[in-house]
Write a structure and sequence with these properties.
The complex is a heterodimer of chains A (492) and B (135).
Chain A: H1 7-19, H2 28-56, E1 59-63, E2 72-76, H3 78-105, H4 111-130, H5 134-153, H6 158-189, H7 194-202, H8 209-226, H9 236-242, H10 245-271, H11 273-278, H12 282-301, H13 306-326, H14 330-361, H15 372-375, H16 377-391, H17 397-411, H18 416-440, H19 443-446, H20 458-476, H21 478-486
Antiparallel strand pairs in A: 1-2
Chain B: H1 4-26, H2 35-53, H3 55-61, H4 64-91, H5 110-132
Helix pairs in contact in B: 1-2, 2-3, 2-5, 4-5
The chains are: A mainly alpha (492), B mainly alpha (135).
Chain lengths: 492, 135
């Protein structure tokens, strides 16, 4: 059984090494097959690890210098395994979709670079989730940021270069703040290992209250830029809407979650919620999260481009995650993680659907999608299911997280938040439902439309169907998922 | 760049720069230097040849496609060696011999890793130069 504990590092190595085998291969088909094989292998290892953690509980893995505090340590608990399995699943499905769609969107000699970047992104997101060493986490965050810039700019259009430049400037500022935070915490505690930092902080943090406040502020701002916390989200709509479809799905579904989980990890494993509740940082996260929920949705209402609309919806959904973190309770963090998983699955499905719509109609303005539900019914039904989850219809994951978020805010006595959640849900409905209603109904919309005339090919629909099924499963088994996650948060 | 003196001097000086770069890489683990420093020195000699003899001649030595292949192979080799040292501790695989301190063959994996870094840095810096050189 010892060999299972090495699987997380094995996965990171396999994905990184297979990335660099791609420039050696000339056939584009073989590149795609290799990518899918390695990602499915790593997903299998993830599921084995998940089963192991489910039976035996969390474990550590030391890479180099065991039994000292010098080596890099990975911590694999329930939350880490489940979140990484879901994100890897999303990446695998998006890569499956991209195998059929990427040839039309980028130049042929860029395809190998696209898959290299996706592998680097996968490995770095896994690293961010697993690592127990903050500097190692920082290195992975840098790799992830550069790789995500790469998959935006790979389309080589003018707006992509502009968006990627904006993104790289913002994300460099974020990295700088984060690095400063790490430097602060290293000079304060003398450790980079999260557990040792936690022990060090527990001893007399009263004397270092101001420096702790600075550290938390730097961390929140640094990771807030990268995971699109409300006022720092301005890079997101451009970047996510101009990228190729598969890249948008990955950026919105997976990359944001890695950074946000690193913030949860910082609060839960490094400081602990008792300490963080005494600092005045959580109300700010709460306010920024709620304003993100409302202003993200308000901006989405006025968008004409479907991908920009979905990108602004991501800002709103990240607001939910920050709201859940800002509650400052272990169960809040559990809801944040659950919302991450639900949003990862749903948002990537929505982006893939919008990619199909743009491909079939040739236009990306929403006004051109009237009556489209009649012409491409399966795509539109899948889009509707995803949108219903975003709005919060029962048994879909969006509803579950909103429901538990409301219950948790009542328990903590923050009644105002319920209205924020309700308002945000209504706003979500305001911008998603017109697309759906105009797509399916209205006599003038359906005039001269031929049933299934713009039907998407089944090989492109299958990945989206898989994602939507996963979304339904995540919603139906939400109780078990939440029970499993709660054992992982605050386990110190 | 059709200057005879320049061409003759570069013909003499380029191998010397490369030799010095190789020295810096090989002695990286026992003296100042290492893969990155040595790699940039060797890349400088290639860039010099690119400037004096033109793109066609420089491409016959190291072109973009070949550099990309070299980078990939070196990165894979680097990853495999690093994986051995990470998992070696964990699964009790045999340790690499450390050798006598001060010799070139000492310090376990550091020498091969330095050589690989040297190849990667040479190729990367040469690719960067040829991306921005508008010939």
């Amino acid at each position: 059984m010892q060999i299972i504990t090495s699987f997380p590092l094995v996965k990171i190595f396999i994905i990184l090494l297979s990335a660099f085998s791609m420039p050696l291969i000339h056939n584009r088909r073989h590149i795609k097959i290799i990518s899918i094989i390695f990602l499915s292998f790593s997903l299998t290892l993830s599921l084995i690890t998940l089963n192991y953690v489910f039976r035996n509980g969390a474990f550590y893995f030391n890479a180099g210098y065991p039994d000292t505090f010098l080596g890099i340590q990975l911590y694999i608990g329930p939350v880490e395994t489940l979140l990484s399995s879901v994100l890897e699943f999303v990446i695998l499905v998006v890569v499956w979709f991209s195998a059929f769609s990427i040839d039309e969107e980028i130049r042929q000699n860029r395809i190998k670079f696209f898959y290299i970047l996706i592998h680097l992104l996968t490995a770095s997101i896994l690293g961010i989730i697993y690592t127990n060493d903050i500097f190692n986490g920082y290195v992975f965050i840098e790799v992830a940021a550069l790789a995500s810039c790469g998959i935006i700019v790979i389309k080589e259009k003018k707006e992509n270069i502009k968006a990627a430049t904006k993104y790289i400037i913002m994300s460099t500022i974020g990295s700088g703040l984060l690095l400063m935070g790490i430097a602060f915490i290293y000079s304060y505690t003398g450790h980079l290992n999260m557990d040792l930092i936690h022990l060090e902080i527990l001893e007399g943090y009263d004397d270092y209250f101001k420096s702790l406040l600075i550290i938390v502020a730097l961390y929140t701002a640094g990771l807030g830029v990268k995971s699109a916390m409300f006022p720092l989200h301005i890079w997101l709509p451009d970047a996510h809407s101009s990228a190729p479809t598969a890249s948008s799905a990955l950026l919105s579904g997976v990359v944001l979650k890695g950074f946000a989980y690193f913030l949860i990890k910082f609060m839960d494993r490094m400081l602990g919620f008792e300490i963080i509740n005494q600092l005045n940082i959580l109300p700010i996260i709460l306010i920024l999260g709620s304003s993100g929920m409302i202003f993200g949705s308000l901006s989405a209402i006025f968008q004409k481009n479907i991908k920009r609309l979905i990108a602004y919806s991501s800002v709103a959904q990240m607001g939910y995650i920050f709201l859940a973190i800002g509650l400052g309770s272990p169960f809040g963090a559990v809801i944040a993680v659950y919302h991450m998983m639900g949003h990862a699955v749903t948002k990537s499905a929505l982006f893939l659907c919008s990619g199909l719509m743009i491909e079939k109609t040739g236009k990306n303005e929403i006004s051109n999608y009237r009556g489209l539900g009649f012409e491409m019914p399966i795509t539109f039904i899948l889009f509707t299911l995803g949108a219903l989850s975003m709005v919060g219809i029962p048994i879909l994951p969006g509803f579950i997280s909103k429901w538990y978020l409301s219950i948790e805010s009542i328990q903590l006595g923050k009644f105002l938040l319920i209205f924020v959640i309700l308002l945000s849900s209504l706003l979500n409905a305001v911008y998603y439902f017109p697309i759906i209603i105009n797509g399916f109904f209205g006599i003038e919309n359906l005039e001269n439309r031929v049933y299934k005339s713009k039907r998407a090919p089944y090989e492109k629909l299958a990945p989206i169907i898989v994602l939507i099924t996963a979304m339904l499963v995540l919603g139906i088994f939400s109780k078990d998922v939440l029970d499993f996650l709660i054992t992982g948060i605050n386990a110190l | 760049m059709n200057d005879t003196i320049l061409k003759q001097v570069v013909k003499i000086i380029a191998p010397c720069i490369q030799l010095f770069g190789i020295y810096v890489i090989l002695y990286g683990h026992i003296s100042p230097g290492g893969g990155f420093a040595g790699g940039t020195i060797i890349a400088a000699s290639f860039i010099l040849q690119h400037i004096t003899f033109g793109k066609a001649y420089a491409d016959s030595l190291l072109n973009e496609g070949r550099a990309l292949k070299l980078i990939s192979i070196s990165l894979i080799a680097y990853g495999v060696l690093k994986a051995y040292s990470f998992f070696g501790d964990y699964f009790d695989l045999p340790h690499t011999p450390t050798g006598i301190p001060g010799n070139i063959f000492s310090g376990g994996f550091i020498l091969p890793l330095n050589i690989l870094i040297g190849i990667i840095v040479t190729s990367t810096i040469y690719i960067l130069y040829s991306l921005f050189s508008n010939e």
